[in-house]
Amino acid sequence: MTAPYACQPQDSRGRRWPERMSTFRSPWQRDRDRIIHSSAFRRLKHKTQVFVEHEGDYYRTRLTHTIEVAQVARTIAGALGLNTDLAETVALAHDLGHPPFGHTGEDALAALMAPYGGFDHNAQALRIVTRLERHYADFDGLNLTWESLEGIAKHNGPVTGDLPYALAEVDAEWDLELHTNASAEAQVAAVADDVAYNHHDLHDGLRAGLFTEADLAALPVIGEAFAAVDALHPGLAPMRRRHEALRRVFGIMVEDVIAVAQNRLASLQPQDAQDIRDMEGPIIRFSKPLYQNLKAIKLFLFQRMYRAPSVVVERRRVTEMLEGLFPLFLADPSKMPPTWFEAAEAAGDETARARVVLDYVAGMTDRFAIQEAQRLLG
């Protein structure tokens, strides 16, 4: 049984293009399945978080990260009486718009697209699920429900001010009420994203040798987790010790989110899903003490991992690849595959053409972008 403030399948606002209801799947189960079967979802296998795809088989890719986020989202949503299918759907879709080379690729494309309306991976995810996936006979995109689109658009909070063009286009066709909070399920997906990357970036940074367990000892939460493992299992093998400590950190984050949400829900007494949307601020969040501790951990990761010298060198290299490929395709669209060339030729002006090129480049995997850079740029 879901709580009254959960999104209820029978109350869904439906799809942009009406379809017959499934006899055995809820609307959000269908959305989830369409996302999993999409081309963009499959490409996440060869898109990376921090390390470039060729650097090792152990590091997280966008796909493994997405699966971890979905697992956390289902756990938290289930504990709070929310709709686990919707939470999972938003979690599975949240990174579909990421370009190759992680946040480095996003930074590079945002700079290249600045004259043409900018680039934002959340907006690009919406563009993918409403326009760029072209497999169905009756519509472009995946024809997801309003609630899933809303969750993709604003799982990180209300969206105000100048909208990215990809988001503005979707919102103009179907009002996503961007000024309000997202559903509690979408908020869960956003927090699950934080939980997952805080956890796995520590794992990946240790495995890459960018820092050691001793470096983590002084950090809040993590230091205590290692101390607890040492007290329970003295002399534990290093890899087991690491895993045991970091799984405790993972559990602390999840339990904190659930406890805070339970307290806020009991205090505020929302009566339905719309009450959640109309609140001031999110209902799903970390406690203030843990939030401050996580800020310290993120600062450590920023200094020791995201801006580590070896990572900075790789960031520069892949940025140069995108800075070479994008203007090349913009100047000569014939270097793209025929369908993309035709779309670029049919574009009305340079901005429209740049957006076609952006869709093509942003859809590349790390591996394919490297291959194309070698082939076309040398």
From TrEMBL:
Keyword Secreted: no
Stored InterPro entries: dGTPase, dGTPase-like, dNTPase_2, HD/PDEase_dom, HD_domain, PHydrolase_assoc_dom
UniProtKB keywords: Hydrolase
Database matches in PROSITE patterns: HD
Annotated TM spans: none
Pfam families named in the record: HD, HD_assoc
Alphabetical list of CDD domains matching this protein: HDc
Domain (HD): residue spans on this chain: 62-198
GO molecular function: dGTPase activity
GO biological process, one term: dGTP catabolic process
PANTHER family documented for this protein: DEOXYGUANOSINETRIPHOSPHATE TRIPHOSPHOHYDROLASE-LIKE PROTEIN, DEOXYNUCLEOSIDE TRIPHOSPHATE TRIPHOSPHOHYDROLASE
UniProt xrefs under NCBIfam families: dGTP_triPase, PRK01286.1-1, PRK01286.1-3
Family: Belongs to the dGTPase family. Type 2 subfamily.
Protein name listed in UniProt: Deoxyguanosinetriphosphate triphosphohydrolase-like protein
Species of provenance: Paracoccus thiocyanatus
